[in-house]
Design a protein that fits this description.
17 helices, 2 domains, mainly alpha, 0% strand
Amino acid sequence: MPPATRRWSKDVKLVRARAGFADIAIAAGGIWDPKQIEQMVAEHSHGAFGDVTNKFSKITWKGVVPNEATIQTVLTAFPACNIRYWLELPLFYLLDGKQNGPATQRLAFASLENFLSVELRHPPIDDDPWQEKKLRFLSGKTITSLLKGPVANQLEYLHEKDHYQHIQLRIDQALKSHGKVPDELATAKHDIAWKLHEMQEAHLLDHLQTLTLITALTKRAQDIEDPEAFVLASRAAQTLFPAAIAHYPQLLYSTKMVSELYCEQLWAPMNRMSPIVFRCIDDPDEHVERTVRSAELLGTLCVPLEHIRRGHKDEPYKSSHPS
């Protein structure tokens, strides 16, 4: 289990709660109105849901993390929901300044299915994977080597995978526009599907795992005050950010909020110590538009734009559903 959690910061607590809500919305078939979801869950609870109203509105707008009773009721209504996973996402620990930095980095590294385990961790010697002695000290030189080697290869793999997914989307769109399926399109669709299957069989990290790894390396470089490693890691995080967020509705739902956290904690500090030519984009709105564009190219834009573009200080989107 994760390290002892300190009180969550207000901004990360809201992103966590919204990720949980988005997972419920996906499990509900793409219903993004809190009142509608509340009614759907209540119908399955047989009175166990209680008389509390606006429960899901408080989750998505006020950052009220659902308690265990609510989670159990949600899972009864939507068994495919994976809300616990999203509430305890290692990336959220990394982005919360109130948490213990080294502990959150250990959590992130330990969640990566032994990818780079030789470089990152000592072999387990007891039942507690969160001990400080388990995490190798990562010097700036080691972090730079990782980013230029295995991590760069991982980014290239994900870029190629996204390229094929985009082609697959274009083929599907072309097939819909034809009354009869042309042989060349059918062949191309089969070839792309097989290529994506082969890439999946490689068992490399997915977009979220890779973003988590790079974010942990960036935080580590920041902690040890190595400018070269910090700049390189920050730029790698910015490169992956749009596609990584676009693949997950649970994060896409709060794109601006997540980008605000990255800009505040990583990209703005990196820009203050880096020459202009190496600077990252530290405007959350620009990251939002880049992410929306990625989601359009990948065919993953399933979240209403008013949610995606809402920042921590913006007024909540007002539902049209009757109270």
